[in-house]
Write a structure and sequence with these properties.
It is a single chain. This protein is an all-alpha fold. The chain has a domain of about 60 residues. The protein contains 2 helices and no strands. Helix 1 crosses helix 2.
């Protein structure tokens, strides 16, 4: 009886949001990106990897905060519109009362 070995790398599904893999690589191919990362590392005294990781983490947190603020503002606008619409509806409306939908001639108003 033969045992199957580990799954080939190409078939392993990866959750990169929580993955911590030894030997994972990020190749920076842009000269400007490499220069900026190197300058940041020199200024902070971090390794190039540490500087890039910290910068990415800060940017990700900032983007998440901005997105949360935008969503909250959108929810507030929707709530304000709903309140405006609710206020414009005359009196209590019963789902069984459709008189306001039809004119005196019985046609839709």
């Amino acid at each position: 009886m033969t045992t199957a070995g580990p799954a080939p790398i190409s078939t392993i599904k990866r959750d990169v949001s929580t993955e911590v893999a030894m030997g994972a690589q990020l190749n920076i191919k842009g000269e400007d990106a490499y220069r900026l990362a190197s300058e940041l590392a020199a200024l902070t005294g971090e390794s190039l990897t540490g500087a890039v990781t910290a910068a990415l983490r800060e940017r990700l947190e900032r983007e998440r905060r901005e997105r949360d603020i935008e969503r909250a503002a959108r929810r507030a606008r929707i709530a304000a519109l709903a309140a405006e619409i609710r206020a414009s509806i005359p009196g209590p409306v019963s789902s069984a009362d459709h008189n306001d939908l039809y004119g005196p001639d019985g046609l839709p108003a």
